[in-house]
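seq as requested:
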Amino acid sequence: MDDFNTNGYSAKDIVVLSSYEGIRKRPAMYIGSTGNAGFTHLLYEVIDNAIDEAVAGYCKNIIIKLYNEDGGDIAEVSDDGRGIPVDIIEKQGKSALEVIMTSMHSGAKFNNNIYKVSGGLHGVGLTVVNALSEYVEVTIKRNSKIYRQRFSRGIPISNLEIIGDAKNNETGTTIKFKPDLQIFSVKLFDTIALNERLKDISFLNSGINIMLIDERDGIERINKYYSQNGMFDFLNYIKNNTQEISKPIILSKQINTTKITVAMQYINNYSEEIISFINNIKTPEGGTHVTGFHTALTRALTNYIEKNKKEKIKINIEGEDTREGLIVIISLLMQNPEFEGQTKEKLGNQEIKGIVDTLVYNELLTYFEENPSETSKIIAKIVNAAEARESAKRARELSRKKSIFEGSILQGKLSDCTEKNPEMAELFIVEGESAAGSSKQGRDRLFQAILPLKGKILNVEKASEDKIFNNQELHTLVTALGTGIKETFNINNIRYKKIIMLTDADVDGSHIRTLLLTFFYKYMKPVIEQGYIYIAQPPLYKVNIGREIHYIYNDNELNSIIKEHPNVGIQRYKGLGEMNPEQLWETTMNPKNRILKKIKIKDAELAKQLFEILMGTDIPARRRFIEEHATEVSFLDI
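struct tokens:
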């Protein structure tokens, strides 16, 4: 009976992996993915260690160098901090450096006497970088000496050795590493995301010099990141020349071991822009610190209005009204943060909600009392938001009475599928009539629905809710999805759990995708969070090699084919309409062959940031972006 129940499962079946083996076996548990985000996350882990030294007051200069070796990126991060300790840990019989590089949950960040606050919560950062790198080389200046040790895929490949004397008693750490291409599906760091991260760090840590030197294409490009005025500079960067409603408000206070800094300002916009950090690490999914701020803001404003009867307000103020047009940065320095997941995207410490709520509420009430003229401007903005919300609500109620959200608007637009199970059904959002025609003919009608768009949808970031809810294309999209919107939104009513943006691989297609992502991010965020949004990857080229036809999805693949077959016929697809239904099905819609990119919250946030740069009013910022990234363009439609 025992043999039957255990089904051959015994002690000999138990596998115990070492630290590095476990990390290499399940890398996504530690860095989120083995794609672009995870590849770049290794670099963040090393940079975060240097920043922790800066926060502790021992580092003023950080230099990041990017190289390319055998087609794969290499990073080198140097700081002028204290240098990783190299003395022997008696219990381990190894140097502190080797223990930190090879043992999980090791480091000084568990000792609050060394690092009061730290982004490296779990003590796995350098261990993970080591385990997932082809090689890591650590050079340390400490004790008037220069030390060096090399590692590969989690284990030491050299002894710790002294290679020279440190001049002028210099101290610091340099970590050079190459992510392991046996682990990762990509070879390049995401420099756009890295640029944003370094900007954030410079704003949060005024006075620290950060330099990024990119030598990957043989030309040295240097970007410097430095902020003199910290949070004020950060607000100006986010504001991006948008007209301001109120002056900046900076709140900063320390409660026991937790330092809370909040920078906020109301601008002439219709949405809230909130960016939050814990120990210099961005928390894109927010957490208890953001919840505490929202609660305090609403409470402080409504209480001030109630207390000051001269503010004659007849309309009921809700939380979302207090956040319209608000840009806010929340930065906490704290001990022992509890992140949800190793990639640290959301704060979970429950006690932080009350701490932030109390501090922000008291500080804001004091500010409102001491600055009545500024407060009146803020209240006027909030009242306008409340009136617009009520107006939009009435418009939506009228729309529902006219059955706008009940399907009549879809006649002649949505080509639905037979499948009614959302788990199996797919919706392709298609750009242009010609592409819509090909996709309708090429699709599998059993489970694939087609919704064509007429041109570019409304930019919801710059539009009032009245315009949004009267926009025909957005009405159509909301109706097709079946979720409703705003207070009627219900993710459980979604009709398709694969929503695929199918647009041309050109500037206009990218613009349309960005507009759609902005809409989803602002009004249907759970749809992104649940992983229902995808981007189709149509081929860029059709290549004829003799009688064989190959569809190529990127320039690197094309260059490889040209090297092997110099005389080939190449057709560049400028738009989806150039493909016939059979080609579109085989390359882009057939689940057996197609390539889909799943959109995550970080992707949507980055798209929103890029859209503001490229389509906003800050011409110098747009010029700088184009100059910095012009060399990355491999094909430009003219």
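The chain has four domains: 19-225, 231-396, 402-538+577-625, 541-572.
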